[in-house]
Structure formats: structure tokens, C-alpha cells
Amino acid sequence: MGSRKCGGCLSCLLIPLALWSIIVNILLYFPNGQTSYATSNKLTNYVWYFEGICFSGVMMLIVAAVLLVLENDNNYKCCQSENCSKKYMTLLSIIFSALGIAFSGYCLVISALGLVQGPYCHTLNGWEYAFEGTAGRFLTDSSMWSQCLEPAHVVEWNIILFSILISLSGLQVIICLMKVVILLSKMLCGSYSVIIQPGII
Questions:
Q1: What is the pLDDT of residues 20-50, one digit of tens each?
Q2: Are residues 169 and 111 in contact, defined by beta-carbon separation less than 8 angstroms?
Q3: Which of 53, 86, 123, 197 has the lowest CB atom count within 10 Å?
Q4: pLDDT tens by residue, 115-127
Q5: Where are the bilayer-spanning segments (predicted)?
Q6: Which of 13, 128, 110, 3 has its CA nearest to residue 52?
Q7: How far does Cα 118 stand from its chain's mean position?
Q8: CB–CB of 180/10 below 8 Å?
Q9: For the segment 58-77, what is each residue's pLDDT rounded down to a tens digit?
Q10: SS (H, E, C) the chain
């Protein structure tokens, strides 16, 4: 019962993380609250991968909802024996937890790539990725940020929001990984072992 409650708490944690991922990803489309850059397609290409809105957001909400349903004590039996039903539900939970790792992992990778690439901004040479060839060195050298003339403070905007997305999706990966480990230990360590009736060989 304790492990079930623990698993339910982990699944519940995925919901606020997913909602925050959606909010943070949406903010990336509006540097300094301005909509003109999104409508004119003058944003970094990695925001169009919908990593926070779709994968770490909506898809993770679906995963969390399914996991909560599967962990409910009142779910319907799928087999003749309670032991079989528990194994089946645990297997489904492992599959959806693995999907959660894939979805949040996608967001983590894309956000990291967006962070290292840097923003698409207007420089003295026109609109370009000013820091694309710096291998992320600009992240620790704020003196380089003045190369981006427009949008204002776009470098800080991208660094903060992509970093938050990395943190949120990273937590989702950890939670889903913990769930997989817990559920696998249940199956492999005999929590749902078959009961052998006495006298049956």
C-alpha cells in the first residue's frame, strides 16, 4: 500500500511540471511580451519543435492521467485472478512511464540544443544566430550578449526559459525513471508472485 501511495504521489508531481512546461514554452514565443517576432518568424528554430507544449506538456499530462488511473485500487480486473490483474496493470504502468521518459527526454534534448545554439536575433549583420559557432561559450560570457540588438534582452530571455524547460523535463525524466525502477522491482522481486496451492504438483 505504501509503495502504491508513493507511486501515486510521483504521478501527481508530473501534472504541475507539465503545466509549467507548457507555460514556459509559450513564453519563448513572446520575447519581452511582444508578439511581432513570432508572427514574423524571427525566433530560434527550436521553439517550433513544441518540446514544452506538446511533449513535456500535453503528452506528459496524458501519461500522468493514465498512470493515476492504473494505480487506482478500484480499477477493473482484466484477468480472472487479482494477481494477474495487478501484473497487467503494473506492466502497463511501466510502458507509460517509459513513454514519459521518451517525451520528457525529447524536451530535455531540444531545450539543451536551443540553449547552446543561442537566440535568433538582429545584429549589425542582420538577422542571424549570433552565437551558433561559439559552442555555448556565450552562456558564461555576458559581454557577448550585446551583439544581439533586437529583440531587447533576448539572450537572457532564452537562457532563463530554456534552462527552466531543461530543469522541468529533467525532473520528469527522473520521476518516470523512478517509477520504472519501482514497478520493475515489484514484478521481478515477487510482489505479485503466483500463489501455489498446497497439494498441487
A1: 999 999 999 999 889 999 999 999 999 999 9
A2: yes
A3: 197
A4: 999 999 999 999 9
A5: 7-28, 48-70, 91-116, 159-184
A6: 110
A7: 21
A8: no
A9: 999 999 999 999 887 665 55
A10: CHHHHHHHHHHHHHHHHHHHHHHHHHHCCCHHHCCHHHHCCCCCHHHHHCHHHHHHHHHHHHHHHHHHHHCCCCCCCCCCCHHHHHHHHHHHHHHHHHHHHHHHHHHHHHHHHHHHHCCEEEECCEEEECCHHHCCHHHHCHHHHHHCCECCCHHHHHHHHHHHHHHHHHHHHHHHHHHHHHHHHHHHCCCCCCCCCCCCC
165, 107 Cβ separation under 8 angstroms: yes
Q: Which residue has the cell 506538446?
A: 54
pLDDT digits (tens, 9 = 90+) for 146-182: 999 999 999 999 999 999 999 999 999 999 999 999 9
